[in-house]
Amino acid sequence: MTEMETTRLILRRFRIQDAAPMAAYRNDPDIARYQAWPSPLTPEAATDQARVYSEQDPEQPGWFQYAIELKADRSLAGDLGVNLHDNRMQADLGYTLAPALHGQGYATEAVRAVLGHLFRQGLHRVSAECDTRNTPSARLLERVGFALEGQRPEFTMNINTREWTDTLLYGLLARHWRNPEADPQPTAKATRLERRGGRAYAPAGAGGGRTGFGGGRAE
Description:
Shape: globular
Number of helices: 6
Helix content: 10-25%
Number of strands: 10
Radius of gyration: 15 Å
Low-confidence stretches: 181-208, 212-219
């Protein structure tokens, strides 16, 4: 599925015109510190990346990057990557949200929509990784049902800062997934937590990655 809707969002295929707004939030230092992409992202590189994303196939193994669009004004709010494994029964998830939109429940809404779709398609398990410093992102993953399965010390090196960071490992099994009937609305607690961002890692040019806010982890 290349498009799905929630109460406030449209998750769709990337377009070339998404390049500029994508570069704007990905070049924010608080976002980039939790992600695996080179920063700053030049206009040319952003256009190339948007083109790669626009040609991905969500039905095939590998990464598919959803553009997260606000229904209210049709602006690009962020992106969410799904890496379907070769066995088509497992996937990795990661996303990034524009800083101005943190704290409003958008990431939670997008993640729940994609998880619901994946499990309805018959997937057995979805995994996510989170920088240990990004507490809001870790709490988002736990809020939507992910279980903390382990921690890898100094497992990831940020290609921009050259710092080694610890990584939290999360997983969610289909039998543990409970999807609310209605789209989730942001609560006071969720608003306090969703200040930064999730991160998601993926090979260069592929999309996806760690989950997180403020940078790119899960939130």
